[in-house]
Amino acid sequence: MDMLIGCLHIQIALVILLLLTQTSSTETSSYGKNTASCFVSERSALLAFRAGLSDPAERLSSWKGERCCQWKAVQCSNRTSHVIKLDLHSHAWSIYFNGIRAYTEPEDALGGSISSSLLGLRHLRYLDLSRNMFVGARIPEFLGSLPKLRYLDLSGARFVGMVPPQLGNLSNLRYLNLDSDYGDVYSKDITWLSRLSSLENLRMAKVNLSTVTGWPSVVNMIPSLRVVDLSGCELSDSPNPPLHNNLTSLETLNIRNNDIYEQIATNWLWDLASLKYLDISYNSFYGPLPYKIGNLTSIVELRLPGNNLVGMIPSNMKNLCNLKALELTSNNINGSITELFDQLQGCSWKSLETLFIPNCNLTGRLPTTLEPLRNLSILDLSGNKLTGPVPLWIGELANLTELTLSYNKLDGVIHEGHLSGL
Ligand SMILES: *[C@@H]1O[C@H](CO)[C@@H](O)[C@H](O)[C@H]1NC(C)=O
Ligand SMILES: *[C@@H]1O[C@H](CO)[C@@H](O)[C@H](O)[C@H]1NC(C)=O
Ligand SMILES: *[C@@H]1O[C@H](CO)[C@@H](O)[C@H](O)[C@H]1NC(C)=O
Ligand SMILES: *[C@@H]1O[C@H](CO)[C@@H](O)[C@H](O)[C@H]1NC(C)=O
Ligand SMILES: *[C@@H]1O[C@H](CO)[C@@H](O)[C@H](O)[C@H]1NC(C)=O
Ligand SMILES: *[C@@H]1O[C@H](CO)[C@@H](O)[C@H](O)[C@H]1NC(C)=O
Ligand SMILES: *[C@@H]1O[C@H](CO)[C@@H](O)[C@H](O)[C@H]1NC(C)=O
Ligand SMILES: *[C@@H]1O[C@H](CO)[C@@H](O)[C@H](O)[C@H]1NC(C)=O
Ligand SMILES: *[C@@H]1O[C@H](CO)[C@@H](O)[C@H](O)[C@H]1NC(C)=O
């Protein structure tokens, strides 16, 4: 008993000690030099960097005086007082038009040139210059010499020219965004990417990669990847990467709007078992979908429009229990709608929210009875060769917000019973 109480006392004493040390460390940090001033060398680096910029909206008017850690867009480490973050993204409006994202020219954009004085910020971990207007400037090679950088966003900042391979020196990088809205940035050889051994998020949409071969082998060298966006990069065919698949964490792969002409069945894509979001729309993948597709058991969104896929979807797609969106638009399924529904009536039937199958040469009559698709909100079967009447189960799709059946050969009457439940 006594020993137990003794132990308790010691534990309480320890807790009090811990609380005391924590309070005192918070106090030092709130009175410490980090929130008040900053390193002189880093302040001069920031001022020299600013001197190269044009800033019509006067976003950087707070950049004066000693206390550079309090300047707008600058963040210092609470522990070391070094500048660790510079977030200078501008606020373009992004608008979607026909599925294409466009940006307005931001009023608060910075321009001018990016001074190599940035290298004075040796401890910088986070640099965001996105959506500014460095019109016609090249991505500076010296950015590859900021060794602590973990986050680099240069997207939509109107850079032109070659992506400097020096970026491959940023071995701590977790996030790299080089999305180029205007397609004026290119890379002829992306092997430098494989040196980014901590990279989780790779975004290079609309960077011209038309002369790159073997991109799958390059990304396969980076096992940490979770997100890869190489949409609109003019990618063409590439050999499948070596058999062993390193990409066990990859959740998102977007390669829409490229020029890939490859057989779909034997493609390495189906070995990416952790995928949740796959978009291969608007390429030239051809042939029937393989049975292997049923192995993508984590898949949530599968977007396959605008390829040359032929034939019925495989029956084990019904095992994809997380599938919310299936888009097959403009492929030659060339089979009956009843069979297609049968292939999905299982696990995926319950999760499906979006079913886009227009312009797929679907034939036959819509089945008269159907197990309800309880979660379905969008159903598009337009532009097919469907015949017969519109069945009453349409009215049982309680979550439906969009129904498109136009451009078929349907007949009969649509009455209140079809629609009153919607
Ligand atoms: C620094 O401390 C402030 C206040 O305690 C906190 O809000 C902020 O997130 C901390 N910054 C970092 C980088 O840890
Ligand atoms: C950075 O990368 C370039 C080319 O990729 C290389 O020549 C150079 O030696 C690297 N610099 C450092 C400091 O690692
Ligand atoms: C992409 O690069 C290739 C080869 O350099 C070039 O022929 C093509 O015009 C470029 N594409 C665009 C949209 O500029
Ligand atoms: C897997 O990744 C490691 C680390 O980058 C690399 O050395 C290896 O070659 C990769 N394997 C394949 C098959 O690409
Ligand atoms: C699906 O995955 C299982 C287990 O990972 C594997 O044994 C099987 O061969 C795969 N099926 C196909 C068609 O690749
Ligand atoms: C539908 O089939 C016709 C031939 O019957 C073919 O010409 C057309 O390309 C097919 N549609 C699609 C989207 O493949
Ligand atoms: C569509 O399917 C029918 C019957 O299965 C077949 O005869 C025809 O050749 C197919 N058409 C195309 C364009 O694949
Ligand atoms: C249906 O949708 C709801 C809301 O998004 C979700 O919670 C539920 O899990 C879905 N049902 C299935 C079977 O996926
Ligand atoms: C569909 O409707 C049911 C009840 O009407 C609701 O519980 C469920 O969350 C809805 N699913 C979605 C995806 O909104």
Oligomerization category of the chains in this entry: single chain
Radius of gyration: 28 Å
Major sheet attributes: 14 strands, mixed
> Which regions have little confidence, pLDDT < 50, spanning 5+ residues?
1-35
The average pLDDT is: 88
**Tertiary shape:** elongated
* Beta strand count: 25
Terminal Cα separation, in Å? 70 Å
Bound molecules: 2-acetamido-2-deoxy-beta-D-glucopyranose
Stated plainly, the CATH topology of the domain at 299-422 is called Leucine-rich repeat, LRR (right-handed beta-alpha superhelix)
Report strand %.
Answer: 15-25%
Reading off the top of the CATH hierarchy, the class of the domain at 299-422 is best stated as: Alpha Beta
Structural class by helix and strand composition? alpha/beta
Strand order of the largest sheet: 2-3-7-8-10-12-13-14-15-17-19-20-22-24
CATH architecture verdict of the domain at 299-422: Alpha-Beta Horseshoe
What would you give as the CATH superfamily of the domain at 299-422? Answer: Ribonuclease Inhibitor
Annotation field: number of helices? 7
Share of helical residues: 10-25%
